[in-house]
Amino acid sequence: MEETNTIDDSKVRCKWSHGAPDYLHYHDTEWGFPEVDDIRLFEKICLESFQSGLSWRTILTKRESFREAFDGFDFTKIASYGSPRVESLLLDSSIIRHRGKIEAVINNAKRAVELVAEKGSLASYFWSFEPNEESNLLPQSRSTSEVSVLLSKDLKNRGWKFVGPTTVYAFMQAMGLINDHAEDCFVRETVEYKRKKLCRDTLTFLD
Fold it and tell me: Which residue windows are coiled coil (predicted)?
């Protein structure tokens, strides 16, 4: 059965959105909406990496602290971080103090700079992995896909870290590369409308 839930405003939502108070606004206004901003794309793949082994609520409640600690996830700035900045971040109790994940963000920022130089933008790269067709599987019925495996492999070949297929699939769900809202979720139609308004050639939204 699809993961849906109805709360007191009578709108049917994906069931996970009812799991914590923080989730509701995130589900209704962010999750699954197509994103083409490079900074937000980089932020999301980093936060998904930090989530590994943790709940998304933990990351969501710390998101503003992460943004402050990592210069708003401006990867051109993060790419210049050295060892002193790593040690400083490890002392910051407002974020997840995991050396490997912190160092991965810095490494991935350097790789992101390289990717932009090659592809023009992170958006053009990530959206080139948008699946042409969705399978007949119900929304939210899997944690990886053939495309997430391919994207994960390509990122790893480019030197990115903490970007396994599950992390990448969660990134694809959240950034709107697929519409994985439950079929009866009231947000699904809005997300699909936004996706149709996205011109893939220019990665801009039509009026």
Answer: none
